[in-house]
Write a structure and sequence with these properties.
Helix content: 10-25%
Number of domains: 1
Structural class: alpha+beta
Number of helices: 1
Radius of gyration: 13 Å
Low-confidence stretches: none
Order of helices and strands: EHEE
Strand content: 15-25%
């Protein structure tokens, strides 16, 4: 059975990979931080072994990094 949950630091995030390297890189480097900062919402899909098998991230708008306050960047 698959579960969809908000991303959380207690999950084994580094074990996730997919065929599209930019998606894996985003997940490893930015998904949790962007979720915590409210820049994007990231939901992971876990299998019955708690392994992350997919994710989606969404936001209401695109934000240019240079327009963020220093504490949000």
């Amino acid at each position: 059975m698959l579960r969809f949950l908000p991303i959380d630091a207690s999950m084994d995030l580094k074990a996730f990979s997919c065929e599209e390297e930019p998606l894996t890189t985003y997940f490893h480097r930015f998904a949790l931080g962007n979720h915590k900062k409210g820049i994007a919402t990231c939901v992971v899909c876990q299998n019955e072994d708690d392994r992350i098998v997919g994710y989606y991230a969404f936001s209401m708008a695109q934000v240019a990094k240079d327009s963020l306050l220093p504490e949000a960047a």
